Amino acid sequence: MACIVPPSLCQTEDLGSENLQKLAKQLQFYKPPKPIDEVEENIEHVINDVPSSVNMRERRAAVLICLFEGPEGELRVILTRRSMNLASHPGDVALPGGKMEEGDEDESATALREAMEEIGLDSSLVQVVAQLEFFLSQHLLTVVPVIGLVSRIEDFKPLLNADEVDAIFDVPLEMFLKVMLIPIALNKKIMMPISS
């Protein structure tokens, strides 16, 4: 079974590789700067077109940042290409995830359920180690990124839900972490993310 809450009780030794164990230990102590429940009380004042009677739980979503170790020891992240038949963001590259449902205990449970529904990722293969700070999507959903580690990626047998996903692939995590200095006016430099 996936270890979902609290991450500090997860067994990092179960992750196999030294890289994944080290990452899990570092992330399990991460605490988002603002707890989602406290901030949601103020969101209604910012969002004019959402009635105050709307249950904020209905406006929650989660995505799974699913990391695993590649053949050369590099960390990789699983991504999907959304179905062209979807009403919102057709064809976009995305993390597995979606809206919270009534039976979901928390955002980790939402992310794991959605990953199972979209790409067939069995939650027993995933060890959730952290929830990152939430963000507000363009559709006014409160989205929580959930970091999950997979130590036995060879046990993952993708099964795509064609209604939601056209493709699944993975890329090096480093692709999202690289920065470069770009000179701008007056010889100032700014940090900008780049793609490999």
List the topology elements:
Layout: H1 18-27, H2 36-46, E1 60-69, E2 75-82, E3 93-94, E4 97-99, H3 107-119, E5 126-131, E6 135-136, E7 142-150, E8 165-172, H4 174-177, E9 179-184, E10 188-193
Parallel strand pairs: 1-7
Antiparallel strand pairs: 1-2, 1-4, 2-3, 2-8, 5-7, 6-7, 9-10
In short:
With 196 residues, the protein is of the alpha+beta class. 19% of the residues lie in helices and 31% in strands. The two termini are 35 Å apart.
Structural write-up:
- With 196 residues, the protein is an alpha+beta fold.
- Helices cover 19% and strands 31% of the residues.
- The protein has helices at residues 18-27, 36-46, 107-119, 174-177; strands at residues 60-69, 75-82, 93-94, 97-99, 126-131, 135-136, 142-150, 165-172, 179-184, 188-193.
- Strands 1, 2, 3, 4, 5, 6, 7 and 8 form an eight-stranded mixed sheet that branches. A two-stranded antiparallel ribbon has the order 9-10.
- The model is unreliable at 3-9 and 180-196 (pLDDT under 50).
Features:
single chain; 196 residues; alpha+beta; eight-stranded mixed β-sheet; two-stranded antiparallel sheet; 10 strands; 19% helix; 31% strand; globular; disordered C terminus
